[in-house]
Design a protein that fits this description.
By secondary structure, the chain is mainly α. Helices cover 57% and strands 9% of the residues. It contains 14 helices and seven strands.
Length: 297
């Protein structure tokens, strides 16, 4: 742990830490102290913990024993009788598959999983309309349609990134946004310019959280999907997986492949439908094709 604060302030609750090493060396005592203070207070508390899976992955690489101790303590805290504290745990990688790989999935079997979905069509339309209204800018129906067509699956984050690129290009222009403006912002900024850096996280986290052959197979599969005009059969991708990993067909090979595909789906790389697979996001697919589409040959 780095940059440990001298005190933790949770609204009306303040916990003083005597020294930095107190947290790193005696985290269990510190955690029990905080939860005891919360339990004795009359007000209910909602604690938000973001990127919890990444934290656990980092701990697991260092010490399986320490990770298991933390997870089992945290589960005990969550299900403690009479507790008024509730937790929302977020992450950009899948917690279940991360823990399942290390035989620790039972430590989170009390959690309710909520998968963040993309907007539906009507919500996406209203989102674009309200953003334009907040900027006091005129929005033509054709422009709205082009924005949604460019993004494909209306993922809120990607919509926001494209809209930001569009508005940045409109600075100093005394005219409404045109269809051409949208296409230029999409192609030059979202796919090819500085804004495209938002997708590098999708690429780099494969190297970080998909170890060894699993990572190589994931990159090859995504390369194939990025070049495909239509969804690809899982059987075709399974053959790629066997080749990349140097395996032959067996129950264990099929199980490992299924776990990889589940992981890619849960991490929002792909969508699986009727035994076929495709990229979850049109934008990510186009970016991947341009940057790494050669992989998977």
């Amino acid at each position: 742990m780095r940059d440990i604060p001298e005190e933790v302030n949770i609204g009306w609750l303040k916990v003083k830490l005597r020294e930095q090493k107190e947290v790193t060396e005696e985290w269990l005592l510190c955690g029990d102290r905080v939860m005891s203070l919360l339990a004795n207070d009359k007000k209910p508390v909602l604690l938000l913990i973001d990127e919890f899976p990444i934290m656990m992955w980092s701990i697991l690489k260092r010490s399986h024993e320490e990770a298991e101790q933390l997870l089992r303590w945290f589960r005990t805290v969550r299900i403690a009788p009479g507790t008024k504290t509730r937790f929302v745990i977020g992450g950009s990688i899948n917690l279940i598959s991360t823990l399942d790989l290390h035989g620790l999935v039972d430590t989170v079997n009390d959690l309710k999983i909520i998968r963040m979905k993309s907007f539906d069509e009507n919500t996406a339309k209203r989102f674009v309309e309200r953003i334009f209204a907040s900027k006091q800018m005129n929005l033509k129906p054709a422009v709205r349609k082009t924005i949604l067509e460019c993004v494909g699956t209306p993922i809120p984050y990607l919509l926001a990134v494209l809209l930001t690129a569009i508005f940045n290009r409109q600075r100093g222009k005394d005219r409404p946004v045109s269809v051409h403006d949208v296409k230029i912002a999409f192609e030059e900024d979202l796919l090819g310019g500085a804004t495209s850096a938002v997708f590098r996280h999708y690429r780099s986290r494969i190297g970080d959280y998909y170890p060894d052959e699993e990572g190589r197979a994931a990159k090859s599969i995504l390369g194939i999907l990025s070049r495909a005009e239509q969804a690809v059969k899982k059987g075709t991708l399974y053959q790629t997986y066997l080749t990349i990993c140097g395996l032959t067909h067996s129950e264990n090979s099929l199980e490992s492949f299924s776990q990889l595909m589940c992981k890619l789906e849960n991490d929002f790389y792909i969508r699986v439908r009727d035994e076929t697979c495709e990229f979850y996001s049109r934008v990510l697919k186009l970016w991947w094709r341009a940057k790494y589409g050669f992989q998977g040959e």
